[in-house]
């Protein structure tokens, strides 16, 4: 699947299209260079799921928990950018989140590749020279 975001003006439509194609998948690993728009797109997805919480990158906390009014259950947003060793991920109890049955959105999953569940959906965000973004999964 490929979604193109032409500008921030249509990011909500792109997020809704992404949600319409989730299927039964729960774990989404977002790959992309720094500044590609991973956090911005995850924020748009959470807004489309009617999350009232402030949605920010959990760079220092590693994981943020949001409540979706639409789903009635938590959504977990991870940022593994600052992970230095896998022990940090074990210590935070990642399995409790990944196998909770709730949506999990992971930024910088390449840093914990060995711990990703087999059914994790790899989502690649590419920033193009013209300012558009491609979301492929």
How many DSSP helices? 4
Please give the CATH architecture.
Answer: 3-Layer(aba) Sandwich
Structural class: alpha/beta
- Morphology call: globular
Strand content is 25-35%
Protein name: tRNA threonylcarbamoyladenosine biosynthesis protein TsaE
Subcellular location: Cytoplasm
Organism: Segatella bryantii (Prevotella bryantii)
Family: Belongs to the TsaE family.
Structure description:
By secondary structure, the protein is of the alpha/beta class. The protein has a single domain (2-136), classed as P-loop containing nucleotide triphosphate hydrolases (Rossmann fold, 3-Layer(aba) Sandwich). Helix content is 23%, strand content 28%. It contains four helices and seven strands; from the N terminus they run βαβαββααβββ. The protein has helices at residues 11-20, 38-48, 86-91, 94-98; strands spanning 2-5, 27-31, 63-68, 73-79, 103-107, 121-127, 133-136. Strands 1-7-6-2-5-4-3 form a seven-stranded mixed β-sheet, with helices on one face. The chain is globular. The model has no long low-confidence stretch (mean pLDDT 96).
């Amino acid at each position: 699947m490929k979604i193109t975001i032409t500008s921030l003006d249509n990011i909500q439509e792109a997020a809704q299209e992404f949600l319409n194609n989730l299927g039964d998948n729960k774990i989404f690993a977002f790959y992309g260079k720094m500044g590609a728009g991973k956090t911005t797109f995850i924020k748009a997805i959470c807004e489309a799921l009617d999350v009232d919480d402030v949605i920010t990158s959990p760079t220092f906390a590693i994981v943020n928990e949001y409540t979706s009014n639409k789903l009635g259950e938590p959504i977990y947003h991870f940022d593994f950018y600052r992970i230095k060793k896998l022990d940090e991920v074990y210590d935070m109890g990642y399995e409790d989140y990944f196998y909770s049955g709730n949506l999990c959105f992971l930024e910088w999953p390449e840093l914990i590749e060995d711990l990703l569940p087999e059914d994790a959906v790899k989502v690649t965000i590419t920033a193009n020279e013209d300012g558009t973004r491609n979301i492929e999964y």
